[in-house]
Protein backbone atom coordinates (compact mmCIF):
# COMPACT_ATOMS: atom_id res chain seq x y z
CA UNK A 1 0.00 0.00 0.00
CA UNK A 2 1.38 3.36 -0.95
CA UNK A 3 0.15 6.64 0.45
CA UNK A 4 0.15 9.01 -2.51
CA UNK A 5 -1.25 12.04 -0.76
CA UNK A 6 -1.99 11.95 2.95
CA UNK A 7 -4.04 15.12 2.79
CA UNK A 8 -5.90 15.33 -0.49
CA UNK A 9 -8.39 17.84 0.86
CA UNK A 10 -10.33 18.64 4.00
CA UNK A 11 -14.04 17.90 4.18
CA UNK A 12 -16.64 19.74 6.20
CA UNK A 13 -18.91 17.51 8.24
CA UNK A 14 -21.69 18.50 5.86
CA UNK A 15 -19.83 17.03 2.88
CA UNK A 16 -19.36 13.73 4.69
CA UNK A 17 -23.07 13.59 5.57
CA UNK A 18 -23.97 14.43 1.98
CA UNK A 19 -21.69 11.70 0.68
CA UNK A 20 -23.13 9.10 3.04
CA UNK A 21 -26.67 10.19 2.18
CA UNK A 22 -25.96 9.84 -1.52
CA UNK A 23 -24.90 6.26 -0.80
CA UNK A 24 -28.29 5.71 0.77
CA UNK A 25 -27.86 6.41 4.49
CA UNK A 26 -31.01 7.57 6.23
CA UNK A 27 -32.45 7.84 9.70
CA UNK A 28 -35.61 5.84 9.11
CA UNK A 29 -36.18 2.19 8.52
CA UNK A 30 -35.15 2.25 4.85
CA UNK A 31 -31.58 2.09 6.06
CA UNK A 32 -31.42 -1.68 5.94
CA UNK A 33 -31.72 -1.63 2.15
CA UNK A 34 -28.84 0.76 1.55
CA UNK A 35 -25.35 -0.41 0.71
CA UNK A 36 -23.95 1.42 3.67
CA UNK A 37 -21.94 -0.62 6.12
CA UNK A 38 -22.62 -0.52 9.89
CA UNK A 39 -19.43 1.38 10.65
CA UNK A 40 -20.37 4.06 8.12
CA UNK A 41 -23.76 4.22 9.75
CA UNK A 42 -22.20 4.97 13.12
CA UNK A 43 -20.44 7.96 11.58
CA UNK A 44 -23.70 9.05 9.97
CA UNK A 45 -25.56 8.77 13.27
CA UNK A 46 -22.93 10.87 15.03
CA UNK A 47 -22.89 13.58 12.36
CA UNK A 48 -26.66 13.78 12.21
CA UNK A 49 -26.66 14.99 15.80
CA UNK A 50 -24.27 17.80 14.99
CA UNK A 51 -24.84 20.98 13.05
CA UNK A 52 -24.10 19.28 9.74
CA UNK A 53 -27.44 17.56 9.31
CA UNK A 54 -29.47 20.68 8.57
CA UNK A 55 -27.09 22.37 6.18
CA UNK A 56 -27.42 22.45 2.43
CA UNK A 57 -24.89 23.26 -0.23
CA UNK A 58 -26.59 26.60 -0.96
CA UNK A 59 -26.40 27.64 2.69
CA UNK A 60 -22.71 26.86 2.80
CA UNK A 61 -21.92 28.74 -0.41
CA UNK A 62 -23.88 31.72 0.86
CA UNK A 63 -22.05 31.61 4.18
CA UNK A 64 -18.62 31.45 2.56
CA UNK A 65 -19.46 34.43 0.35
CA UNK A 66 -20.64 36.49 3.28
CA UNK A 67 -17.54 35.60 5.29
CA UNK A 68 -15.21 36.98 2.63
CA UNK A 69 -15.79 40.47 4.02
CA UNK A 70 -14.20 39.53 7.31
CA UNK A 71 -11.03 38.07 5.87
CA UNK A 72 -11.10 34.90 7.93
CA UNK A 73 -8.69 32.09 7.22
CA UNK A 74 -10.15 29.17 5.28
CA UNK A 75 -9.63 26.88 8.26
CA UNK A 76 -11.60 29.21 10.52
CA UNK A 77 -14.51 29.38 8.09
CA UNK A 78 -14.55 25.58 7.80
CA UNK A 79 -14.55 25.17 11.55
CA UNK A 80 -17.37 27.64 11.98
CA UNK A 81 -19.38 25.68 9.41
CA UNK A 82 -18.75 22.49 11.34
CA UNK A 83 -19.40 23.69 14.86
CA UNK A 84 -22.13 26.26 14.04
CA UNK A 85 -21.66 28.29 17.20
CA UNK A 86 -24.93 29.34 18.79
CA UNK A 87 -23.46 31.27 21.67
CA UNK A 88 -20.46 33.42 22.49
CA UNK A 89 -18.85 30.60 24.38
CA UNK A 90 -18.80 28.41 21.26
CA UNK A 91 -16.96 31.04 19.25
CA UNK A 92 -14.51 31.58 22.08
CA UNK A 93 -13.47 27.93 22.03
CA UNK B 1 -25.18 28.43 39.51
CA UNK B 2 -23.82 30.61 36.78
CA UNK B 3 -20.17 30.33 36.01
CA UNK B 4 -18.25 33.45 35.21
CA UNK B 5 -15.31 33.15 32.89
CA UNK B 6 -12.04 32.35 34.55
CA UNK B 7 -9.69 33.29 31.82
CA UNK B 8 -11.07 35.82 29.42
CA UNK B 9 -7.68 36.75 28.06
CA UNK B 10 -7.15 37.45 24.45
CA UNK B 11 -6.89 35.28 21.49
CA UNK B 12 -8.90 32.37 20.26
CA UNK B 13 -7.14 29.15 19.38
CA UNK B 14 -4.40 29.97 16.87
CA UNK B 15 -5.40 28.14 13.71
CA UNK B 16 -2.50 27.14 11.52
CA UNK B 17 -3.96 29.04 8.63
CA UNK B 18 -1.42 27.97 6.06
CA UNK B 19 -3.09 24.59 5.67
CA UNK B 20 -6.61 23.35 6.23
CA UNK B 21 -7.49 21.63 9.48
CA UNK B 22 -10.61 19.54 9.82
CA UNK B 23 -11.96 16.41 11.42
CA UNK B 24 -12.40 14.57 8.11
CA UNK B 25 -9.87 14.46 5.33
CA UNK B 26 -9.48 12.77 1.99
CA UNK B 27 -6.38 10.66 1.54
CA UNK B 28 -5.25 9.34 -1.81
CA UNK B 29 -3.86 5.81 -1.66
CA UNK B 30 -2.51 3.30 -4.13
CA UNK B 31 -2.88 -0.38 -3.36
CA UNK B 32 -2.36 -3.61 -5.23
CA UNK B 33 -4.59 -6.51 -4.35
CA UNK B 34 -6.42 -9.57 -5.61
CA UNK B 35 -10.05 -9.64 -6.50
CA UNK B 36 -11.33 -13.15 -5.79
CA UNK B 37 -12.74 -15.05 -8.79
CA UNK B 38 -16.13 -15.31 -7.11
CA UNK B 39 -16.63 -11.61 -7.88
CA UNK B 40 -15.92 -11.94 -11.62
CA UNK B 41 -19.59 -11.59 -12.50
CA UNK B 42 -19.79 -8.07 -11.01
CA UNK B 43 -18.88 -4.91 -12.91
CA UNK B 44 -15.24 -4.16 -12.20
CA UNK B 45 -15.77 -0.99 -10.13
CA UNK B 46 -18.24 -2.68 -7.84
CA UNK B 47 -15.99 -5.64 -7.20
CA UNK B 48 -13.03 -3.39 -6.50
CA UNK B 49 -15.06 -1.05 -4.28
CA UNK B 50 -16.29 -4.04 -2.28
CA UNK B 51 -12.78 -5.34 -1.77
CA UNK B 52 -11.48 -1.89 -0.78
CA UNK B 53 -14.24 -1.57 1.78
CA UNK B 54 -13.39 -4.96 3.23
CA UNK B 55 -9.72 -4.03 3.42
CA UNK B 56 -9.91 -0.48 4.78
CA UNK B 57 -13.29 0.37 6.29
CA UNK B 58 -13.19 0.93 10.02
CA UNK B 59 -9.44 0.32 10.10
CA UNK B 60 -6.78 2.68 11.35
CA UNK B 61 -3.89 3.69 9.11
CA UNK B 62 -1.00 5.05 11.16
CA UNK B 63 -0.76 8.87 10.97
CA UNK B 64 -3.71 9.05 8.61
CA UNK B 65 -6.48 8.18 11.03
CA UNK B 66 -9.54 5.98 10.96
CA UNK B 67 -10.96 5.12 7.54
CA UNK B 68 -14.61 6.06 7.41
CA UNK B 69 -15.56 5.47 3.81
CA UNK B 70 -14.27 4.88 0.29
CA UNK B 71 -14.82 8.22 -1.44
CA UNK B 72 -14.04 7.35 -5.05
CA UNK B 73 -11.77 5.34 -7.33
CA UNK B 74 -9.33 7.38 -9.40
CA UNK B 75 -7.81 4.68 -11.56
CA UNK B 76 -7.70 0.93 -12.00
CA UNK B 77 -4.78 -0.77 -13.66
CA UNK B 78 -3.64 -4.29 -14.10
CA UNK B 79 -6.02 -7.15 -14.17
CA UNK B 80 -3.22 -9.61 -14.69
CA UNK B 81 -3.67 -13.14 -13.50
CA UNK B 82 -0.59 -14.60 -11.96
CA UNK B 83 0.29 -18.22 -12.60
CA UNK B 84 -1.56 -20.76 -10.44
CA UNK B 85 -3.90 -18.05 -9.17
CA UNK B 86 -7.55 -17.89 -10.12
CA UNK B 87 -7.90 -14.26 -9.16
CA UNK B 88 -6.96 -11.10 -11.03
CA UNK B 89 -4.59 -8.61 -9.40
CA UNK B 90 -5.28 -4.88 -9.76
CA UNK B 91 -3.39 -1.73 -8.85
CA UNK B 92 -5.96 0.82 -7.79
CA UNK B 93 -5.63 4.49 -6.89
CA UNK B 94 -8.52 5.65 -4.73
CA UNK B 95 -9.48 8.18 -2.10
CA UNK B 96 -10.64 7.39 1.41
CA UNK B 97 -12.42 9.62 3.87
CA UNK B 98 -10.27 9.55 7.00
CA UNK B 99 -11.27 10.66 10.48
CA UNK B 100 -8.28 12.50 11.90
CA UNK B 101 -9.08 15.21 14.42
CA UNK B 102 -6.43 17.90 14.74
CA UNK B 103 -4.78 19.01 17.97
CA UNK B 104 -6.85 21.88 19.32
CA UNK B 105 -10.12 20.76 17.77
CA UNK B 106 -13.23 20.87 19.93
CA UNK B 107 -15.39 17.77 19.85
CA UNK B 108 -18.53 16.88 21.80
CA UNK B 109 -18.71 13.29 23.01
CA UNK B 110 -20.59 11.11 25.47
CA UNK B 111 -19.16 9.62 28.63
CA UNK B 112 -18.41 5.94 28.27
CA UNK B 113 -16.51 5.27 31.49
CA UNK B 114 -15.46 7.27 34.52
CA UNK B 115 -12.76 5.91 36.78
CA UNK B 116 -9.85 7.01 38.94
CA UNK B 117 -7.49 7.67 36.02
CA UNK B 118 -9.95 9.94 34.24
CA UNK B 119 -12.78 9.78 31.74
CA UNK B 120 -13.28 7.69 28.66
CA UNK B 121 -15.49 9.22 25.97
CA UNK B 122 -17.14 7.91 22.83
CA UNK B 123 -18.52 9.42 19.63
CA UNK B 124 -20.29 6.31 18.42
CA UNK B 125 -17.87 5.23 15.73
CA UNK B 126 -14.77 5.85 17.81
CA UNK B 127 -14.41 5.31 21.50
CA UNK B 128 -10.73 5.41 22.44
CA UNK B 129 -10.93 8.97 23.71
CA UNK B 130 -9.37 9.51 27.13
CA UNK B 131 -9.36 12.56 29.37
CA UNK B 132 -6.63 11.91 31.94
CA UNK B 133 -6.93 13.29 35.45
CA UNK B 134 -4.26 15.96 34.97
CA UNK B 135 -6.20 17.59 32.12
CA UNK B 136 -9.29 18.25 34.21
CA UNK B 137 -9.99 21.78 35.46
CA UNK B 138 -8.34 22.31 38.82
CA UNK B 139 -9.28 21.51 41.47
CA UNK B 140 -11.16 18.32 40.61
CA UNK B 141 -11.66 15.29 42.75
CA UNK B 142 -12.80 11.78 42.17
CA UNK B 143 -15.58 10.34 44.27
CA UNK B 144 -15.48 6.57 44.00
CA UNK B 145 -18.76 4.75 43.74
CA UNK B 146 -19.48 2.72 46.88
CA UNK B 147 -21.08 -0.07 44.83
CA UNK B 148 -18.64 -0.49 41.96
CA UNK B 149 -15.00 -0.91 42.61
CA UNK B 150 -13.23 1.14 39.91
CA UNK B 151 -15.98 3.49 38.79
CA UNK B 152 -17.08 6.80 40.25
CA UNK B 153 -17.87 10.41 39.48
CA UNK B 154 -15.59 13.38 38.95
CA UNK B 155 -16.36 16.69 40.55
CA UNK B 156 -14.90 20.12 39.88
CA UNK B 157 -14.84 22.65 42.67
CA UNK B 158 -15.10 26.27 41.60
CA UNK B 159 -16.06 29.24 43.74
CA UNK B 160 -17.06 26.87 46.54
CA UNK B 161 -19.57 25.10 44.30
CA UNK B 162 -19.24 21.54 43.10
CA UNK B 163 -19.77 20.84 39.40
CA UNK B 164 -20.36 17.19 38.70
CA UNK B 165 -19.69 15.19 35.56
CA UNK B 166 -22.71 13.00 35.70
CA UNK B 167 -22.62 11.37 32.29
CA UNK B 168 -25.99 12.74 31.23
CA UNK B 169 -24.95 15.49 28.84
CA UNK B 170 -22.27 15.65 26.26
CA UNK B 171 -18.74 16.64 27.17
CA UNK B 172 -16.92 19.14 25.01
CA UNK B 173 -13.21 18.51 24.99
CA UNK B 174 -10.19 19.89 23.17
CA UNK B 175 -8.00 17.36 21.36
CA UNK B 176 -4.68 17.35 23.16
CA UNK B 177 -2.92 14.59 21.30
CA UNK B 178 -3.58 11.82 18.77
CA UNK B 179 -1.27 8.84 19.02
CA UNK B 180 -0.91 5.59 17.14
CA UNK B 181 0.70 3.09 19.50
CA UNK B 182 2.65 0.31 17.80
CA UNK B 183 1.01 -3.11 17.68
CA UNK B 184 2.15 -5.14 20.69
CA UNK B 185 3.59 -8.59 20.09
CA UNK B 186 2.03 -10.11 23.16
CA UNK B 187 -0.46 -8.84 25.67
CA UNK B 188 -1.23 -10.09 29.16
CA UNK B 189 -4.64 -11.72 29.47
CA UNK B 190 -6.57 -8.98 31.30
CA UNK B 191 -5.18 -6.10 29.27
CA UNK B 192 -7.63 -3.88 27.40
CA UNK B 193 -8.08 -4.75 23.74
CA UNK B 194 -5.42 -3.02 21.67
CA UNK B 195 -6.35 0.47 20.50
CA UNK B 196 -4.49 1.41 17.31
CA UNK B 197 -5.47 5.09 17.60
CA UNK B 198 -5.86 6.94 20.87
CA UNK B 199 -7.12 10.50 21.29
CA UNK B 200 -6.17 12.31 24.48
CA UNK B 201 -8.36 15.26 25.33
CA UNK B 202 -8.41 18.13 27.77
CA UNK B 203 -11.34 19.84 29.47
CA UNK B 204 -9.24 22.35 31.35
CA UNK B 205 -10.56 25.51 29.75
CA UNK B 206 -13.55 27.84 29.63
CA UNK B 207 -16.34 26.33 27.64
CA UNK B 208 -15.13 22.74 27.94
CA UNK B 209 -16.56 19.92 29.99
CA UNK B 210 -20.23 19.03 30.24
CA UNK B 211 -22.44 21.33 28.18
CA UNK B 212 -24.69 22.03 31.16
CA UNK B 213 -21.85 23.68 33.13
CA UNK B 214 -21.75 26.58 30.68
CA UNK B 215 -25.38 27.08 29.77
CA UNK B 216 -25.78 29.63 32.54
CA UNK B 217 -22.61 31.52 31.70
CA UNK B 218 -24.48 33.25 28.87
CA UNK B 219 -27.06 34.67 31.26
CA UNK B 220 -24.48 36.22 33.58
CA UNK B 221 -22.83 38.04 30.69
CA UNK B 222 -26.02 39.83 29.78
CA UNK B 223 -26.96 40.87 33.31
From TrEMBL, chain A:
Pfam families: RNA_pol_Rpb4. Residues 1-93 form the RNA polymerase Rpb4/RPC9 core domain. One of its GO terms (molecular function) is nucleotide binding. Belongs to the eukaryotic RPC9 RNA polymerase subunit family. The keyword Kinase does not apply. The keyword Endoplasmic reticulum does not apply. One of its GO terms (cellular component) is RNA polymerase III complex. PANTHER family: CALCITONIN GENE-RELATED PEPTIDE-RECEPTOR COMPONENT PROTEIN, DNA-DIRECTED RNA POLYMERASE III SUBUNIT RPC9. It is found in: Nucleus. It comes from the Eukaryota. This is DNA-directed RNA polymerase III subunit RPC9. InterPro entries: HRDC-like_sf, RNA_pol_Rpb4/RPC9_core, Rpb4/RPC9, Rpb4/RPC9_sf, RPC9. Keywords: DNA-directed RNA polymerase, Nucleus, Transcription. Its main location: nucleus.
UniProtKB/TrEMBL annotation, chain B:
Residues 105-214 form the RNA polymerase III subunit Rpc25 domain. InterPro entries: NA-bd_OB-fold (IPR012340), RNA_pol_III_Rbc25 (IPR013238), RNA_pol_Rpb7-like_N_sf (IPR036898), Rpb7-like (IPR045113), Rpb7-like_N (IPR005576). It is found in: Nucleus. Residues 32-86 form the RNA polymerase Rpb7-like N-terminal domain. The keyword Nucleus applies. Coiled coil: none annotated. Gene3D superfamilies: Nucleic acid-binding proteins (2.40.50.140), RNA polymerase Rpb7-like, N-terminal domain (3.30.1490.120). Keywords: DNA-directed RNA polymerase, Nucleus, Transcription. One of its GO terms (cellular component) is RNA polymerase III complex. Transmembrane segments: none annotated. SUPFAM superfamilies: N-terminal, heterodimerisation domain of RBP7 (RpoE) (SSF88798), Nucleic acid-binding proteins (SSF50249). GO terms for biological process: transcription initiation at RNA polymerase III promoter. Belongs to the eukaryotic RPB7/RPC8 RNA polymerase subunit family. DNA-dependent RNA polymerase which catalyzes the transcription of DNA into RNA using the four ribonucleoside triphosphates as substrates. This is DNA-directed RNA polymerase subunit.
Amino acid sequence: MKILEANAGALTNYEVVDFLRSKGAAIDSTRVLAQVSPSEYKVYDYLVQTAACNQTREHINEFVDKCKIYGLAKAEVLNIINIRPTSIIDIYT
Amino acid sequence: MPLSWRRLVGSAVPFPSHHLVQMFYLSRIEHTFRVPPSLLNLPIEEAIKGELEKLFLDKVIADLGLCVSVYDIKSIEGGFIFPSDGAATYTVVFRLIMFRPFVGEIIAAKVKESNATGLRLSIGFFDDIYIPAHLFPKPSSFKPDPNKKDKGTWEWEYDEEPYIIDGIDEIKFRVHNVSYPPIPIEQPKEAKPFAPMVITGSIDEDGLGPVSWWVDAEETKES
